[in-house]
Amino acid sequence: MVKRKKQEPLNVSRFIKELLVDELGFPFKQIVNDISFEKYTGIKRPDILISEVEYDLELQNNDEFIQNLIAYAEAKHDCAVDSRDWKDAYNQGLLKAQKEALDIPFFIVTNFLVTHFYNTQNGERISLNGIPIADFQNMDVLRLIRKKLDENPDLNNIQTNVDTQQAISEASFNNKLWELAGIYRDINFKNITEKIDFTIGFIALKFYEEKVEMENKKNKTKDYWSDIQSYIQKPDTFTTALGGYIQRLQNETDFGEFKSLMNIVREKLNALDGITQEQIIEIYTIIEGMGRLHGCGFDLFGSVYEKFASNKEKGDFGEFFTRRNYTHVLTKLLLKDEKYFNAQRPFIIGDFACGTGGFLTEAFKILQSKYKNPMTGKLEPRVEEFLKSQCIYGYDVKEENVSRTKLNMFLVGDGHTHIIRKDTLREELTGNSWDYVLMNPPYGNGSTKAETSSITTNRYELAFLAKIVKSLKIGGKACVIVPDGFFENPSIMAFRKEIMSLCTINAVISLPKHAFAPYTKEKTYALFIEKRSQEESPLQTEDIWMYIIDNDGYANSDKRFETNLKDADNKWLHNEIKGYIDNHGNEKVSILEERWLKYDDSSSGGTEFINEKGETITKRKSGFVMVSNINEENYYNLLPEFYLRPYEPKYITLKELDREIETIEGILKDISKLTVDDIKNKLGVENDEG
Asked: From the CB of residue 148, how many other CB atoms can be counted at a distance below 10 Å?
């Protein structure tokens, strides 16, 4: 349990403000813990009530608030799960939730660090996708739970689609990072990088025990992560035991790939460098509270970096990281036709520069969701084996990235068997055998020549694109994030033509300028290709679907804050790539998925949308570009903006031109008359006499 300063207890009010409002985004006026609501429960006031409507203190709209109730929670600070106080909160919650005035199908018990959801009908704990809920959920998930239980009051395990699964897992992990951030305020880290590596290293210690348990390699004569908990009341012994556990993993096991991360933790422990023994125990307790890591489905490295890294670290890290909102939706689009498992048609998915494994983790989660038995919510053994050891391949030239991807793959459910170090630009891959490739390759000048006869270049993104085309089997598909130069630079026209002769370009999606800021500020596009047989036409004949993403849920600037704009039915107004849950608890896919390969606004003259300021804009967003219009006259330009939003120059008359020239000449004459002192005075520079 995390210790708090006496003058600053984590009470209900702080919990509402810091977690529910600031972290999970609940509207403050839709939460109450007011004594005037006692009349609805018949006994002590409910600790937390959350409604679809705002509570108006002046109007005292208590009845309206209760009639639109979405969740109710009992809170017990500083009590252990299943302790007497916890059970008292459970009993109060069950009794109050069953009252006719509340009439809510589930209730919540929290000690501010752990949160359980219970079914009002049978009193059993509620799970999401087979995993018992251990954290407070956001408003959308509360709506979903309420809808499912209204339909089936005895339901204890709620299945969701893959979009909601991702939102739940990220929210749960971010809750733990929020708790860690509170402790880190009083710890002296040398820099933010040390804080990040310390966090990941600590989590890796827990991960190792789960790994050996799954492999049936646990040595009962040795101490593991869970055994150290027995020393928690003896800080000196606890710190020594944890340090010994790290030393053993470094010396005796095959866990050496995480040695540098674990070493940061060990050095901090040994020297007690800016950290106390009590703080070490608090950190251990929070990470232990994460529950089972395997299969929980979050991007560990992405979440930690998003939480703790400054813009500088994010810029340095940008080469290895692709934002999760894009890896998720782009992977869903590429794998859209994989609707069910077909044992007669196995396939492989690869990322030849996998970084932290963002694309591969999304591929695993999406296929896992598609292949689960709808009745049991589980995978059949042969399907599970396929996903874990036969389907996912990831390569990277950096050993630390291989380690990151392996850990991330383990956390989403496995599939780390074929994650290895390989310089894919220099080394041969397994022939023309790839069914799917997902990549956000590094950009800029490299040292390896691209495998193409059309141009001579060492640029990473072009060399990787050429490698992908060569590696795909006939009918194989790829989604590659590529900078704008590939799509419009006249000097590589021949390479674009070569791609169109070897593949069918199914789609080009323009990503916002700041899509990956502050990691990178390159203007990028998602290119979707399918390799064709050379017995077909020498050049692509199918029209190309193009789409411009204007809004991805973040401000279109370097700051990239979330806009969170929604309409009356909870649909995103400023986010085209994220699914949502409507006000009735129904799961909906993103706007981009709804429009994929079919939306064309050419006849309507454009699509109406809003920017982050709420201003209405109408512009072309999408349509099919006739392949005959992509030719040598425009250098085989593939930019969506070139066809959907062509630049319209503003022309002026000769008289207006003459006036502009006269104005400029006048300014230049005035500048020529200025002395050095005049210039210094205008610039506010003090004269230096000597």
From this structure: 20
The pLDDT of residue 680: 64
- CA distances for 484 relative to 333, 335, 481, 523, angstroms: 21, 24, 10, 6
- Identify whether residues 506 and 488 lie together within a single domain: yes
CB atoms within 10 A of CB 553: 19
Tell me 573's DSSP state: S
Name the amino acid, one letter, at 415.
Answer: G
Sign of CA dihedral 608, 612, 615, 619: negative
Average the pLDDT over 493-509 and give the result: 97
d(CA 482, CA 440): 7
Determine which of 225-229, 272-276, 302-306 has the lowest per-residue pLDDT on average. 302-306
Q: What is the CA radius of gyration of the chain?
A: 29
Question: Looking at residue 256, what is its pLDDT?
Answer: 65
* Token pair belonging to 574: 């400023």
Note whether residue 471 is domain-resident: yes
Domain count, the chain: 4
* CATH number of 79's domain: 3.90.1570
Residue 350 to residue 360: CA distance in whole angstroms: 8
Statement to judge: residues 248 and 353 lie in one domain: no
Q: Taking the CB of residue 13, how many other CB atoms lie within 10 A of it?
A: 10
> Cα(139)–Cα(580) distance, rounded to whole angstroms?
11
Please, are residues 610 and 574 in contact by the beta-carbon 8 Å criterion?
A: yes
Number of other CB atoms surrounding residue 166 within 10 Å: 25
Least confident of 93-102, 446-455, 466-475, 672-681: 672-681
From 434, 509, 490, select the one nearest 633 (Cα to Cα). Answer: 490
The residue that leads in pLDDT, 128 or 480, is 480
Specify whether 88 is located in the same domain as 134: yes
CB atoms within 10 A of CB 627: 16
Q: For the residues 504-533, what does the mean pLDDT come to?
A: 91
Q: Contacts for 643-651 with beta carbons within 8 Å, 24 or more apart?
A: 643/546, 644/546, 644/548, 644/620, 645/548, 645/619, 645/620
Using DSSP, state whether 50 is helix, strand or coil.
strand
Predicted confidence band of residue 124 (pLDDT cuts 50, 70, 90): very high
Q: Do 187 and 77 have their domain in common?
A: no
Write down the pLDDT at residue 364: 94
Q: What is the tens place of the pLDDT at every residue in 444-487?
A: 899 899 999 999 999 999 999 999 999 999 999 999 999 999 99
Q: Buried (b) or exposed (e) across 388-425, using 16+ Cβ within 10 A?
A: beebbbbbbbeeebbbbbbbbbbbbbbbbebbeebebb
2-6, 496-500, 507-511, 659-663: least confident range = 2-6
Q: If you average pLDDT over each of 174-183, 198-207, 506-515, 654-663, which comes out highest?
A: 506-515
Identify which has the larger pLDDT, 259 or 298. 259
Please tell me the distance from the alpha carbon of residue 464 to that of residue 439, in angstroms, as a whole number. 9
Q: State the pLDDT at residue 456.
A: 92
State the Cα–Cα distance between residues 206 and 188, nearest whole angstrom. 23
Phi then psi for 441, rounded to 5 degrees? -70, 160
Please tell me whether residues 247 and 394 are part of one structural domain: no
φ, ψ at 489 (rounded to 5°): -65, 120
Q: Specify the pTM.
A: 0.80
Is residue 141, in this structure, part of any structural domain at all?
yes
Q: What is the pLDDT of residues 629-652, one digit of tens each?
A: 999 999 999 999 999 999 876 777
Supply the mean pLDDT for the chain. Answer: 87
Instruction: Please tell me the distance from the alpha carbon of residue 120 to that of residue 97, in angstroms, as a whole number.
Output: 6
Distance CA 303, CA 324 (A): 9
Helix orientation angle between 277-288 and 192-214, rounded to the nearest 10 degrees = 50
CA distances from 652 to 195, 647, 655, 662 (A): 57, 16, 8, 15
Distance of alpha carbon 405 from the chain centroid? 15
Tell me, yes or no, whether 603 lies in a domain.
no
